[in-house]
Design brief:
With about 400 residues, this protein is an alpha/beta fold. Helices cover about 40% and strands about 20% of the residues. Strand 13 (about 315-320), helix 12 and strand 14 form a beta-alpha-beta unit. The longest helix has 19 residues, at about 360-375. The mean pLDDT is about 95.
Protein backbone atom coordinates (compact mmCIF):
# COMPACT_ATOMS: atom_id res chain seq x y z
CA UNK A 1 0.00 0.00 0.00
CA UNK A 2 1.07 3.60 -0.58
CA UNK A 3 1.86 6.67 1.48
CA UNK A 4 -0.38 9.42 0.15
CA UNK A 5 -0.04 13.15 0.74
CA UNK A 6 -2.99 15.37 -0.15
CA UNK A 7 -2.20 19.10 -0.52
CA UNK A 8 -4.72 21.90 0.04
CA UNK A 9 -4.59 25.67 0.42
CA UNK A 10 -8.10 26.95 -0.34
CA UNK A 11 -10.19 24.08 1.05
CA UNK A 12 -11.24 23.18 4.57
CA UNK A 13 -9.37 20.38 6.34
CA UNK A 14 -12.79 18.68 6.62
CA UNK A 15 -13.73 19.28 2.97
CA UNK A 16 -16.41 16.80 1.95
CA UNK A 17 -14.68 15.56 -1.22
CA UNK A 18 -11.09 15.69 0.04
CA UNK A 19 -11.58 14.37 3.57
CA UNK A 20 -14.99 12.73 4.02
CA UNK A 21 -14.91 10.89 0.69
CA UNK A 22 -11.46 10.48 -0.84
CA UNK A 23 -9.23 10.40 2.24
CA UNK A 24 -11.56 8.11 4.17
CA UNK A 25 -11.92 5.79 1.15
CA UNK A 26 -8.16 5.62 0.62
CA UNK A 27 -7.68 4.84 4.31
CA UNK A 28 -10.30 2.09 4.04
CA UNK A 29 -8.40 0.70 1.04
CA UNK A 30 -5.33 0.35 3.25
CA UNK A 31 -3.29 3.41 2.32
CA UNK A 32 -1.61 5.77 4.78
CA UNK A 33 -3.08 9.22 4.19
CA UNK A 34 -1.74 12.61 5.26
CA UNK A 35 -3.51 15.88 4.46
CA UNK A 36 -1.35 19.01 4.49
CA UNK A 37 -3.73 21.86 5.31
CA UNK A 38 -3.36 25.60 5.86
CA UNK A 39 -4.03 27.68 8.96
CA UNK A 40 -5.08 31.32 9.33
CA UNK A 41 -3.71 32.99 12.47
CA UNK A 42 -3.06 29.56 13.94
CA UNK A 43 -6.47 28.03 13.14
CA UNK A 44 -7.63 25.61 10.46
CA UNK A 45 -11.02 26.43 8.96
CA UNK A 46 -14.02 24.15 8.77
CA UNK A 47 -16.43 23.42 5.91
CA UNK A 48 -18.64 26.27 7.17
CA UNK A 49 -15.64 28.60 6.47
CA UNK A 50 -15.34 29.54 10.15
CA UNK A 51 -12.02 29.10 11.97
CA UNK A 52 -12.08 25.95 14.08
CA UNK A 53 -11.34 26.79 17.73
CA UNK A 54 -10.63 23.20 18.84
CA UNK A 55 -7.12 23.24 20.38
CA UNK A 56 -6.47 19.72 19.06
CA UNK A 57 -6.59 21.12 15.51
CA UNK A 58 -4.15 23.94 16.25
CA UNK A 59 -1.17 21.60 16.50
CA UNK A 60 1.43 21.24 13.75
CA UNK A 61 0.48 17.56 13.54
CA UNK A 62 -2.73 15.86 14.60
CA UNK A 63 -4.68 12.69 13.77
CA UNK A 64 -8.41 12.93 13.14
CA UNK A 65 -10.47 9.83 12.32
CA UNK A 66 -7.31 7.89 11.37
CA UNK A 67 -6.16 10.56 8.92
CA UNK A 68 -2.88 12.38 9.62
CA UNK A 69 -2.86 16.16 9.28
CA UNK A 70 0.16 18.44 8.97
CA UNK A 71 -0.48 22.18 9.14
CA UNK A 72 1.27 25.26 7.80
CA UNK A 73 0.53 28.98 7.95
CA UNK A 74 -1.10 30.31 4.80
CA UNK A 75 0.70 33.46 3.72
CA UNK A 76 -1.36 34.18 0.58
CA UNK A 77 -4.85 32.68 0.17
CA UNK A 78 -5.03 34.17 -3.33
CA UNK A 79 -1.85 34.07 -5.39
CA UNK A 80 -0.95 37.26 -7.27
CA UNK A 81 0.42 37.71 -10.79
CA UNK A 82 3.90 38.21 -9.32
CA UNK A 83 3.62 34.84 -7.54
CA UNK A 84 2.61 33.19 -10.82
CA UNK A 85 5.54 34.79 -12.66
CA UNK A 86 7.88 33.46 -9.96
CA UNK A 87 6.43 29.96 -10.28
CA UNK A 88 6.76 29.95 -14.08
CA UNK A 89 10.36 31.16 -13.87
CA UNK A 90 11.25 28.47 -11.34
CA UNK A 91 9.67 25.73 -13.47
CA UNK A 92 11.37 26.87 -16.67
CA UNK A 93 14.75 27.00 -14.92
CA UNK A 94 14.09 23.67 -13.12
CA UNK A 95 14.71 25.25 -9.71
CA UNK A 96 13.01 24.47 -6.43
CA UNK A 97 13.64 27.64 -4.46
CA UNK A 98 10.53 29.79 -4.94
CA UNK A 99 7.56 29.17 -2.63
CA UNK A 100 4.98 31.50 -1.11
CA UNK A 101 4.72 29.67 2.24
CA UNK A 102 5.71 26.45 4.03
CA UNK A 103 3.39 24.09 2.14
CA UNK A 104 6.21 22.71 -0.02
CA UNK A 105 8.54 21.78 2.81
CA UNK A 106 5.72 20.49 5.01
CA UNK A 107 4.42 18.18 2.25
CA UNK A 108 7.95 17.13 1.29
CA UNK A 109 8.55 15.95 4.87
CA UNK A 110 5.89 13.23 4.45
CA UNK A 111 8.17 11.35 2.01
CA UNK A 112 5.02 10.07 0.29
CA UNK A 113 4.67 7.86 -2.77
CA UNK A 114 1.83 9.90 -4.27
CA UNK A 115 1.23 13.65 -3.99
CA UNK A 116 -2.42 14.45 -4.61
CA UNK A 117 -3.10 18.15 -5.27
CA UNK A 118 -6.60 19.61 -5.06
CA UNK A 119 -5.99 23.08 -6.53
CA UNK A 120 -3.70 24.46 -9.19
CA UNK A 121 -2.18 26.53 -6.37
CA UNK A 122 -1.06 23.31 -4.66
CA UNK A 123 -0.26 21.44 -7.86
CA UNK A 124 2.81 23.68 -8.12
CA UNK A 125 4.14 22.36 -4.78
CA UNK A 126 3.33 18.75 -5.73
CA UNK A 127 5.23 19.08 -9.01
CA UNK A 128 8.21 20.74 -7.34
CA UNK A 129 8.32 17.93 -4.77
CA UNK A 130 8.31 15.39 -7.59
CA UNK A 131 11.25 17.19 -9.23
CA UNK A 132 13.16 17.48 -5.96
CA UNK A 133 12.79 13.80 -5.13
CA UNK A 134 13.59 12.73 -8.68
CA UNK A 135 16.94 14.51 -8.40
CA UNK A 136 17.54 12.42 -5.25
CA UNK A 137 16.68 9.18 -7.04
CA UNK A 138 13.12 8.71 -5.75
CA UNK A 139 10.31 8.63 -8.28
CA UNK A 140 6.92 9.70 -6.95
CA UNK A 141 3.58 10.22 -8.67
CA UNK A 142 1.45 13.37 -8.88
CA UNK A 143 -2.36 13.45 -9.13
CA UNK A 144 -4.20 16.66 -9.97
CA UNK A 145 -7.77 16.56 -8.64
CA UNK A 146 -9.34 19.32 -10.76
CA UNK A 147 -12.55 20.24 -8.94
CA UNK A 148 -13.14 22.98 -11.50
CA UNK A 149 -12.35 23.85 -15.10
CA UNK A 150 -9.10 25.79 -14.82
CA UNK A 151 -8.05 28.32 -17.45
CA UNK A 152 -5.61 27.19 -20.11
CA UNK A 153 -2.42 29.12 -19.31
CA UNK A 154 1.36 28.75 -19.37
CA UNK A 155 1.66 27.84 -15.68
CA UNK A 156 -0.89 25.05 -15.89
CA UNK A 157 0.66 23.78 -19.15
CA UNK A 158 4.06 23.53 -17.47
CA UNK A 159 2.63 21.82 -14.40
CA UNK A 160 0.62 19.29 -16.39
CA UNK A 161 3.85 17.95 -17.94
CA UNK A 162 4.57 16.31 -14.58
CA UNK A 163 1.03 15.09 -13.77
CA UNK A 164 0.64 11.30 -13.81
CA UNK A 165 -3.14 11.20 -13.50
CA UNK A 166 -5.89 13.81 -13.63
CA UNK A 167 -9.18 13.44 -11.76
CA UNK A 168 -12.16 15.68 -12.47
CA UNK A 169 -15.82 16.07 -11.59
CA UNK A 170 -18.09 16.28 -14.65
CA UNK A 171 -18.33 14.84 -18.16
CA UNK A 172 -17.95 18.21 -19.88
CA UNK A 173 -14.87 19.19 -17.87
CA UNK A 174 -13.34 15.77 -18.56
CA UNK A 175 -13.89 16.23 -22.30
CA UNK A 176 -12.19 19.65 -22.27
CA UNK A 177 -9.20 18.36 -20.31
CA UNK A 178 -8.91 15.34 -22.65
CA UNK A 179 -8.65 17.70 -25.61
CA UNK A 180 -6.04 19.86 -23.85
CA UNK A 181 -3.92 17.04 -22.39
CA UNK A 182 -4.42 13.92 -24.54
CA UNK A 183 -1.32 12.26 -23.08
CA UNK A 184 -2.57 12.28 -19.46
CA UNK A 185 -4.94 9.57 -18.12
CA UNK A 186 -8.15 11.19 -16.83
CA UNK A 187 -10.74 9.70 -14.48
CA UNK A 188 -14.17 11.18 -13.77
CA UNK A 189 -15.13 10.98 -10.09
CA UNK A 190 -18.42 12.69 -9.29
CA UNK A 191 -19.02 14.67 -6.09
CA UNK A 192 -21.57 12.15 -4.90
CA UNK A 193 -22.35 10.80 -1.41
CA UNK A 194 -22.59 7.18 -0.29
CA UNK A 195 -25.88 5.58 -1.27
CA UNK A 196 -27.99 4.51 1.68
CA UNK A 197 -30.27 1.55 1.02
CA UNK A 198 -32.82 2.62 3.57
CA UNK A 199 -33.81 6.24 3.98
CA UNK A 200 -36.79 7.60 5.86
CA UNK A 201 -38.98 9.99 3.92
CA UNK A 202 -41.83 11.85 5.55
CA UNK A 203 -43.14 13.97 2.69
CA UNK A 204 -46.26 15.58 4.07
CA UNK A 205 -48.74 16.16 1.22
CA UNK A 206 -50.27 19.03 3.14
CA UNK A 207 -47.03 21.02 3.18
CA UNK A 208 -44.18 21.92 0.84
CA UNK A 209 -40.51 22.39 1.71
CA UNK A 210 -37.79 23.62 -0.62
CA UNK A 211 -34.14 23.23 0.38
CA UNK A 212 -30.85 24.87 -0.55
CA UNK A 213 -27.60 23.25 0.59
CA UNK A 214 -24.25 25.00 0.95
CA UNK A 215 -22.75 28.45 1.27
CA UNK A 216 -25.17 31.08 -0.04
CA UNK A 217 -23.79 33.89 -2.24
CA UNK A 218 -25.12 36.01 -5.10
CA UNK A 219 -23.45 33.59 -7.55
CA UNK A 220 -24.64 30.41 -5.85
CA UNK A 221 -28.22 30.36 -4.60
CA UNK A 222 -28.66 34.16 -4.54
CA UNK A 223 -30.30 35.35 -1.29
CA UNK A 224 -32.40 38.01 -3.06
CA UNK A 225 -33.88 35.37 -5.37
CA UNK A 226 -34.61 33.09 -2.43
CA UNK A 227 -36.40 35.89 -0.58
CA UNK A 228 -38.59 36.59 -3.62
CA UNK A 229 -39.29 32.87 -4.13
CA UNK A 230 -40.23 32.40 -0.48
CA UNK A 231 -42.59 35.38 -0.47
CA UNK A 232 -44.33 34.21 -3.66
CA UNK A 233 -44.61 30.57 -2.55
CA UNK A 234 -46.04 31.64 0.76
CA UNK A 235 -49.03 33.18 -1.03
CA UNK A 236 -49.66 30.11 -3.19
CA UNK A 237 -48.85 27.09 -0.99
CA UNK A 238 -50.10 25.74 2.31
CA UNK A 239 -47.59 25.27 5.10
CA UNK A 240 -44.61 26.38 3.00
CA UNK A 241 -41.00 26.49 4.16
CA UNK A 242 -37.66 27.26 2.52
CA UNK A 243 -34.76 25.70 4.46
CA UNK A 244 -31.11 26.61 3.89
CA UNK A 245 -28.68 23.96 5.12
CA UNK A 246 -25.62 26.16 5.08
CA UNK A 247 -24.48 29.64 5.88
CA UNK A 248 -24.36 33.07 4.33
CA UNK A 249 -21.09 35.03 4.57
CA UNK A 250 -21.45 38.70 5.43
CA UNK A 251 -18.93 40.03 2.88
CA UNK A 252 -20.20 43.62 2.85
CA UNK A 253 -23.16 45.85 3.79
CA UNK A 254 -25.36 44.40 1.06
CA UNK A 255 -24.77 40.84 2.28
CA UNK A 256 -25.39 41.92 5.87
CA UNK A 257 -28.73 43.38 4.82
CA UNK A 258 -29.66 40.21 2.90
CA UNK A 259 -28.63 38.06 5.88
CA UNK A 260 -30.89 40.14 8.14
CA UNK A 261 -33.83 39.78 5.74
CA UNK A 262 -33.28 36.02 5.41
CA UNK A 263 -33.20 35.67 9.20
CA UNK A 264 -36.35 37.75 9.67
CA UNK A 265 -38.45 35.97 7.02
CA UNK A 266 -40.86 33.60 8.84
CA UNK A 267 -40.89 31.13 5.92
CA UNK A 268 -37.09 30.73 5.75
CA UNK A 269 -34.92 28.66 8.09
CA UNK A 270 -31.14 29.12 7.88
CA UNK A 271 -28.79 26.83 9.80
CA UNK A 272 -25.54 24.95 9.27
CA UNK A 273 -25.97 21.16 9.13
CA UNK A 274 -23.07 18.74 9.46
CA UNK A 275 -22.42 16.42 6.52
CA UNK A 276 -23.49 13.21 8.28
CA UNK A 277 -26.71 14.82 9.56
CA UNK A 278 -28.00 15.86 6.13
CA UNK A 279 -29.98 12.65 5.33
CA UNK A 280 -32.08 13.15 8.46
CA UNK A 281 -32.78 16.77 7.50
CA UNK A 282 -33.91 15.78 4.00
CA UNK A 283 -36.64 13.46 5.29
CA UNK A 284 -39.24 16.23 5.08
CA UNK A 285 -37.86 18.13 2.05
CA UNK A 286 -39.79 17.99 -1.23
CA UNK A 287 -37.56 19.90 -3.68
CA UNK A 288 -33.92 20.93 -3.98
CA UNK A 289 -33.18 24.39 -5.37
CA UNK A 290 -30.11 25.39 -7.40
CA UNK A 291 -29.28 28.72 -8.97
CA UNK A 292 -25.82 29.15 -10.49
CA UNK A 293 -24.56 32.34 -12.10
CA UNK A 294 -23.35 30.64 -15.28
CA UNK A 295 -21.52 33.66 -16.66
CA UNK A 296 -18.51 31.95 -15.11
CA UNK A 297 -17.78 29.09 -17.50
CA UNK A 298 -16.97 26.60 -14.75
CA UNK A 299 -20.50 26.79 -13.32
CA UNK A 300 -21.96 25.93 -16.72
CA UNK A 301 -20.16 22.58 -16.53
CA UNK A 302 -20.59 21.90 -12.82
CA UNK A 303 -22.22 18.96 -11.07
CA UNK A 304 -21.99 20.22 -7.49
CA UNK A 305 -22.16 18.34 -4.20
CA UNK A 306 -25.63 19.68 -3.46
CA UNK A 307 -27.00 18.32 -6.76
CA UNK A 308 -26.08 14.74 -5.84
CA UNK A 309 -27.01 15.26 -2.19
CA UNK A 310 -30.58 16.16 -3.18
CA UNK A 311 -31.01 13.19 -5.51
CA UNK A 312 -29.38 10.71 -3.15
CA UNK A 313 -31.95 11.64 -0.52
CA UNK A 314 -34.91 11.26 -2.86
CA UNK A 315 -35.28 15.00 -3.45
CA UNK A 316 -35.88 16.08 -7.08
CA UNK A 317 -34.09 19.25 -8.16
CA UNK A 318 -35.07 22.48 -9.94
CA UNK A 319 -32.14 24.26 -11.64
CA UNK A 320 -31.48 27.12 -14.03
CA UNK A 321 -29.75 26.44 -17.34
CA UNK A 322 -26.44 24.64 -16.85
CA UNK A 323 -25.19 22.27 -19.52
CA UNK A 324 -24.16 19.44 -17.24
CA UNK A 325 -27.10 19.54 -14.82
CA UNK A 326 -29.54 19.94 -17.74
CA UNK A 327 -28.11 16.84 -19.47
CA UNK A 328 -28.32 14.83 -16.26
CA UNK A 329 -31.89 15.84 -15.41
CA UNK A 330 -33.17 15.20 -18.93
CA UNK A 331 -31.45 11.81 -19.04
CA UNK A 332 -32.73 10.60 -15.66
CA UNK A 333 -36.01 12.56 -15.41
CA UNK A 334 -35.27 13.59 -11.84
CA UNK A 335 -36.16 17.28 -11.81
CA UNK A 336 -36.99 20.39 -13.81
CA UNK A 337 -34.65 22.60 -15.81
CA UNK A 338 -35.65 26.24 -16.25
CA UNK A 339 -33.94 26.83 -19.58
CA UNK A 340 -32.73 30.33 -18.77
CA UNK A 341 -29.42 31.62 -17.46
CA UNK A 342 -31.20 34.17 -15.24
CA UNK A 343 -34.66 32.85 -14.37
CA UNK A 344 -36.83 35.10 -12.27
CA UNK A 345 -38.33 34.14 -8.93
CA UNK A 346 -41.62 33.76 -10.84
CA UNK A 347 -39.96 31.20 -13.17
CA UNK A 348 -38.83 29.12 -10.20
CA UNK A 349 -42.19 29.38 -8.47
CA UNK A 350 -43.93 28.15 -11.63
CA UNK A 351 -41.75 25.02 -11.58
CA UNK A 352 -42.27 24.52 -7.85
CA UNK A 353 -46.05 24.88 -8.21
CA UNK A 354 -46.09 22.19 -10.89
CA UNK A 355 -44.60 19.72 -8.42
CA UNK A 356 -46.58 21.06 -5.46
CA UNK A 357 -49.79 20.30 -7.38
CA UNK A 358 -48.66 17.00 -8.94
CA UNK A 359 -47.37 14.82 -6.12
CA UNK A 360 -47.32 11.71 -8.35
CA UNK A 361 -44.84 13.42 -10.70
CA UNK A 362 -42.82 14.51 -7.68
CA UNK A 363 -42.72 10.92 -6.41
CA UNK A 364 -41.64 9.54 -9.82
CA UNK A 365 -38.82 12.06 -10.04
CA UNK A 366 -37.75 11.16 -6.51
CA UNK A 367 -37.52 7.45 -7.36
CA UNK A 368 -35.70 8.04 -10.64
CA UNK A 369 -33.11 10.21 -8.92
CA UNK A 370 -32.50 7.54 -6.29
CA UNK A 371 -32.21 4.83 -8.95
CA UNK A 372 -29.62 6.83 -10.89
CA UNK A 373 -27.58 7.35 -7.73
CA UNK A 374 -27.72 3.69 -6.76
CA UNK A 375 -26.79 2.29 -10.18
CA UNK A 376 -24.28 4.83 -11.49
CA UNK A 377 -23.28 7.83 -9.41
CA UNK A 378 -23.07 6.94 -5.71
CA UNK A 379 -19.78 7.15 -3.84
CA UNK A 380 -19.57 3.35 -3.62
CA UNK A 381 -19.10 3.44 -7.43
CA UNK A 382 -16.74 6.43 -7.23
CA UNK A 383 -14.64 4.67 -4.60
CA UNK A 384 -14.05 1.87 -7.09
CA UNK A 385 -12.81 4.42 -9.64
CA UNK A 386 -10.53 6.02 -7.03
CA UNK A 387 -9.06 2.60 -6.21
CA UNK A 388 -8.39 1.99 -9.91
CA UNK A 389 -6.54 5.30 -10.20
CA UNK A 390 -4.21 4.41 -7.35
CA UNK A 391 -3.76 0.82 -8.53
CA UNK A 392 -2.55 2.20 -11.86
CA UNK A 393 0.11 4.35 -10.15
CA UNK A 394 1.58 2.17 -7.39
Amino acid sequence: MAKICKLIRQHSFEDIRIFEKEAMSLRKLGHEVTIVTGKFNGYVFGPDLFLNQNPEFQKDHFIYRDIHFLTYDIQHYTLSSSHIIGMIKNLLEDKQDYFVDKLYETALSTNADVYHAHEWQTLYEAVQIKKTLRKKGKHVKVIFDAHELESDNLLLTLLMKEVDHLITVSDSIKEIYEERYPEIPITLIYNSPYYQDEITMNKDKESFTIAYEGVLTSQKGDPERILDIANLCNTKMTNFHFVIFGRMPEFNEHYKLMYKKIRENPSIILRWVKYHDLPKEYQTVHIGYIFFDTKEQNRMYALPNKFFSYLNNGVPVVVNHSKEMKNFIEKHECGIVIDKAEPTAEDYVEAFLKLYEDRELLSRMSKKGREAMQKIYCWQKMEERLAEVYNSLI
